[in-house]
Amino acid sequence: MKSAGISNKLVWYLPLGLALIVALTGWWANRQIGRAIKESIRNEMESALIADVTALEIWFENQKRLAKSIAGDPEISEQVLKLIEDPASYQPQAMHHSGVLMSNTFEYCLQQRVDEIDYIYAFVANTDLEVVHHFMGNQERLLDQIPDPLQRNYSQLFESNEAVVITPFHRPQLPGAGREPGRRGRPPGRFGGPGGRQGGESLGTRPPRPAFPPGGPGRGPRFGKRGFKERIPDHLLELMQQDTLMQVAAPVTDDTGQVKGAIAFFIDPESEFSKIMSVARPGQSGETYAFDATGVMVSMSRFDDQLNALGLIPNRPNSSSALNLVLKDPGHALKAGETIDQSMIDAWPYTQVVRTTRAYLEQSMDLDPEATFLQIETTPFRDYRGIEVVGAWTWLPHYQLGMAIQIDADEAYRPLYMLRWVFVVLILLLLLAATVIFLFSMLNVRWRQQLAMAQLEAKRLGQYHLEAKIGEGGMGTVYRAKHALLRRETAIKLLMPDKADPLSLQRFEREVKITSRLTHPNTIQVFDYGHTPQGLFYYAMEYLDGINLKDLVLRYGPQPSSRVAYILSHVCESLQEAHREGLIHRDIKPANIILCERGGVPDFVKVLDFGLVRHYDEPNQDHTQITATTTVSGTPQFLAPEAIRHPDQADPRSDIYAVGAVGYFLLTGHYVFEGQSMMEIFEKHLTEQPTPPSSKTSQDVHPCLEQILIQCLSKDPDDRPESVGYLAEQLNGCLMEDDWSTARRIEWWSAFHEAKAGASTTTKVSSQTTLDKTVLIDLDDRS
Fold first, then answer.
1. What separation in angstroms does the CA of 329 have from each of 281, 312, 388, 584?
2. Which of 74-83, 676-685, 774-783 has the lowest mean pLDDT?
3. Which end of the chain is more exposed for a tag (fewer CB within 10 A), N or C?
4. Which of 518, 542, 566 delimits the end of a domain?
5. Could you tell me if 552 and 534 lie in one domain?
6. How many whole angstroms separate alpha carbon 136 and alpha carbon 125?
7. Do 108 and 255 have their domain in common?
8. C-alpha Rg value of the chain to the nearest Å
9. In terms of residue numbers, what domain contains 148?
10. Which long-range contacts link 372-381 to residues 24+ away (Cβ below 8 Å)?
11. Residues 140 and 253 in one domain
12. What are phi and psi of 265, to 5 degrees?
């Protein structure tokens, strides 16, 4: 029977244990793999960013080298120097007009030189930052100033005698367009600065966006005439229709090497610059982009279609995210169909990329303006679409440009998320298995109990015929039975199969053996002991047709002092025999004391349930002791302080304390100490003085009895009555026959039997709450 019970528990404990192991393994694996994935993402982001930065720097150097090569061409430099020295001496040709370019002209030579590198001539400037000639021609020969946003770059060019690359800026309104005749200086419109910056402006400002002049460039016919050159090809002229442009400019020097001016060319940022951003673009959602110090994206986003649909960039031909998208965090993932206006965008904070970069620039501006920094973030943060991403970014002071690379967090951490789901599914499956097995186990136990009950009802138990179930406790179930031959009513206590583990069986047998040694009339008598072939252990004891003291108080309320003194004196007489045998009961409580009529004597007391009895006089020789000496045994409301503090030091005076607690309950209907938890009750037993019973009840309490009970409840065992025999003498001295005479007892029992006539007699061993049950607490295991 034991192995079956253990097997049933293991069957459903095993999935729970496996679920716990899987959960712990998942937690550990999640941490380890999470760290590994983060480190992998960090390395991948750093490598990709370095690759993109390196590619960009190489491309910049190539552009500067090409521009310097063109500017150094003797034929071109000669023409440029003439334009710079005397602009009025040369009649320029507008390279975007229809027709062909005449040979031996500046434009013809220039076009031959840049044919194969997809440049488009922009303008020639002198060292005074004046534009002396531009690709549209200038019939009035008026000098235009280089726009403010570009002046810093050209000043750097003239000082260093090195070519410069000017990062993307808005398409300009060309010099001379829309200007009053004869007026010298800059036209009404202005260039947008590189990356949206203007010289001398503070961070966070953006220049106005100029418009391209009316009309568009065309393409001349193919005359094929020798000595003539067709004008700039269509695909380069279409460049001028784009919203953003780039420039590369190279110095022009005289024979002595002195810088006299510069020649500048337009570059297509979409076909060149933005492509560099995708050299090491990671995954399906990864992108690399450039941004300036004001938080404006300089390159094109790979999500331009989405941004256009959301209204984050202008919806017009040839418009892109470059120089039109401010990198701000919308606070949530933007979805198609959302209505977004400019006021909402203005209120959004900058993305983490921009915030950290600008904070760095503000701190390093005074320390080292040329310093660079690199930041890698593996904790997800929101980008300009509101999507959570991870990434890395850096600042390139030489180009006044930031570069960032990022990938959606869902894609970056997909392996980790999949692993988490695998563990979650495994744990749920194991918990489901444990639940199903547990339910089947419970049903199995119930079926076995019902089968056992059916067998008990259908068969005799040895010489006893079971009639009805009359009680159930922690150790077993009690039935009313009759002896087959003697026809004597008997109480049969059964140890059910599901409780027949070795410890329970040992305690069951021990209770029988000890109780059978005690012969006092006030102690329950045991007649027989055995077990059936089916493995049901039982013992037969005298049947008591009465009521236990707990049910007595619950049904009839607090009892008079004389009756209480009478009951307690007979309890003491039962305990006196056990104490003489060197045994202490350890579980005296109202539910273990029964009142009945015996041999015509009303209010006959019977003490039962000796399952926790142990020797106290020779603890080292106690072969019947099952529980450890550090285990608290008994019912919390009736335990003496020393039985709580030092269970191995309990002696007969501990039973006296319990007798006092039982008397207190009979007089008042309340426990000596009450609390919400077992430990709270224990603490009160150890530290608090009991309230006098007379303060807890409205009925009269005899002063003599109250004094005896308070003495029994003393914290110090030496202050209690010296023995149960002496306590019985004191209680007998408090008996008041007039209050609870023999006649009143007979009258009470007659009314009791009449009240329960026609109903089956029930004597419950214990059916109380957890705090009113016998407990075993291992003090060594208490936290």
1. 22, 12, 10, 78
2. 774-783
3. C
4. 542
5. no
6. 14
7. yes
8. 51
9. 72-174+189-197+217-272
10. 372/396, 372/397, 374/46, 374/49, 376/42, 376/45, 376/46, 377/352, 378/38, 378/41, 378/42, 378/45, 380/409, 380/413, 381/351, 381/352
11. yes
12. -130, 145
